[in-house]
Amino acid sequence: MYEYEKLKEKIKLICENYNNSPIGGYITGDGPIPCDILFVGEAPGKTEVQEGKPFVGMAGKTFEKYLNYVGLTRDNVRITNTCFFRPIKIGESTTGRKTIKNRTPKVSEVSLFKDILDEEINIVNPKIIITLGNIPLNRLTNFKTIGSCHGVLFFNEQLHKYIFPMYHPSSLTYNRNEDFKQMYVNDWTKLKEALKQF
Ligand code: URA
């Protein structure tokens, strides 16, 4: 556990010293260490920073629903992110009010946390890593887009780990059509099947 405390210190240092672009706080991962199943998301949003845990906002509600659907709970899995701070965009509304929105982390921001995520994977020592969306997929594999590889179990030679790419749960908010939803549900069913071998 000492190793993980050191890792949390490193995350804190990176986030507190970052001043290239606006950020809105940071979090660390959540769940048991070691753990056979590791989910890796993109970056925290407002609710995650408020509560100090990944996937507890709107996308988190969807995520947890499907996690339960395959017979898992948050206590059985480790959940972390590719970028540990909340990337934000500060703007102005038409009435002149200051607005704060989430933004996708930049490549340079993902790179800032490269060693951190690698170290977390080492410490957690999962049998399978489930990437949620394109950001962790691009960081951990050579796949370009989630559309080409979701719902299939791969062995990643570099990491020496099994990887199961999935769409990010927030994609359900953007793709409201039935076909997409069905495909998303099928991917979770395929994950349930894949998990039987671990
Ligand atoms: N989306 C993510 O990718 N990570 C979180 O922690 C929350 C929402």
Automatic annotation (TrEMBL):
A Pfam family assignment: UDG
Please give the superkingdom of this protein's source.
Answer: Bacteria
Q: Which GO terms describe its molecular function?
A: 4 iron, 4 sulfur cluster binding; deaminated base DNA N-glycosylase activity; metal ion binding
Domain (Uracil-DNA glycosylase-like) spans 28-189
Q: SUPFAM superfamilies recorded for this chain?
A: Uracil-DNA glycosylase-like
Q: Which GO terms describe its biological process?
A: DNA repair
Keywords, ordered alphabetically:
4Fe-4S, DNA damage, DNA repair, Hydrolase, Iron, Iron-sulfur, Metal-binding
PANTHER family reported in the protein's UniProt record: TYPE-4 URACIL-DNA GLYCOSYLASE (PTHR33693:SF1), TYPE-5 URACIL-DNA GLYCOSYLASE (PTHR33693)
Question: Mind telling me what this protein is named?
Answer: Uracil-DNA glycosylase family protein, clostridial type
